[in-house]
Please model this.
Amino acid sequence: MKVAVLDIKGKETGRKVDLSDDVFAIEPNEHAIYLDVKQYLAHQRQGTHKSKERAEIAGSTRKIKKQKGTGTARAGSIKSPIFKGGGRIFGPRPRSYGQKLNKNVKRLARKSALSLKSRQKELLVVEDFNLETPKTKDFVQILKSLGLENKKSLIVLGGTNNNVYLSSRNFERSEVVTSSELNTYKILNANSLVLVESAVEGIQSNLSK
Model:
């Protein structure tokens, strides 16, 4: 599948890049996408929640009333969960929400997400570019030229580029990642996917294994 390469002014350069059908034109597997997104979101959870149970509450261990003759239920400690200020029953404990996922399923999910973007005409290929200094204004001008100023976009670079990354960091509707950082959630969360020309080879080599 051949796609026209644009310059940063949004005009065609006259060149085309060949996108592999095995990566950008497969039949999307919705269940694989679901599993990969679910794993990604689970890994975003810190799992540091904690509440005190009755053994951790500070308080007297004295029996608060006699066992019989009060006409109410027996009670042995003020730290009991049934009293105000007592411990919590089955409260949350620190835990990891991480989930395991077969790497072949993850690869299938990413190829499915890229194929969806390609099928929905939400994928652009732009020639490699650089910014002399980190300026949000210059980065926004590039997005304007590509017609993406008011859209949520994901720009994929071939490698680390600090000037482009720092220029985008203050613009909430756009995110810049490298081809090695690309994941299913970020692809689907963007309205438009912009691949820098040098990133195409990296994506295809990573997903064609």
